[in-house]
Amino acid sequence: MIDLHTHTNFSDGTDTPTELVNKALASGITTLAITDHDSISGWDEAISALRPGLSLVPGAEISCQTTDGISVHVLGLLFDPNHVELMNTLSKTRENRHGRMEKIIARINEAGIDISMADVLEQLSDGATLGRPHLADALVKKGVIASREEAFTQMLHNNSKYYVSHYSPSPEVAIKLIKEAGGVAVIAHPMASHRGRVISSETFGSIINSGLDGIEVDHRDHTPDEKRELINLAKEFDLVMTGSSDYHGNGKLNMLGEYTTHPKQWEKLESKATIRRVVTA
Prior knowledge:
Layout: E1 2-3, H1 17-27, E2 31-37, H2 43-49, E3 55-65, E4 71-77, H3 84-110, H4 117-121, H5 132-141, H6 148-156, H7 171-180, E5 184-188, H8 201-209, E6 214-218, H9 224-237, E7 240-243, H10 263-270, E8 279-280
Parallel strand pairs: 1-2, 2-3, 5-6, 6-7
Antiparallel strand pairs: 3-4, 3-8, 4-5
Helix pairs in contact: 1-2, 5-6
């Protein structure tokens, strides 16, 4: 089984890289991508935890934004971690998340809810990328809300009065940098309409033309109709079709390996990287 989209506690997952690797082995997964938000900090631990039977695909999920303000996530896989411009972009995105969090907290405080930046940072592992899930966990700990899932449903979704955007590159820029770093680019859950506004066909065309390699088709946030639309798009433009769990550990329904990528599709995707960067024990 091939799962190309997972998260550890180096972003908004709850498992350490070692725990995730062990769970993948126990689940029968043979190829696992670690794609923390705007971070590669979990790579070294995951590589150290590898055992025979599991191959690791180093990656990151890059937070992007279109010119009309729509959030897009691009999975960068198999890129060179020493590519300066890409690493600087990830660093800038992470740094801007702190300012964004302070603004969100201020809005929540204005509504009479007692939560502080210190409360949120307590939920953050060393080196992790700060995000709304850490705020959700702080709200749960303070007894404001019952669960992370409920926090997003009621307070932290993209259309919430508390929502604040943050700096992020355009998807076209992110793809350009991934490709320059020798990696491959896959757009994550592009039709997940319940998360908020989705990109238009014109924007999708611009993203494809920038060098996109694949589309995450099989994802729990896509309806059957959305999947069919993405399959047709992938066939029309000869894009790789992936399936992934988007696993985060506790607090999300996504189960490790619940959606996977066909080996032939993975072979096609991996061949587009400049050199082989899959790691084995």
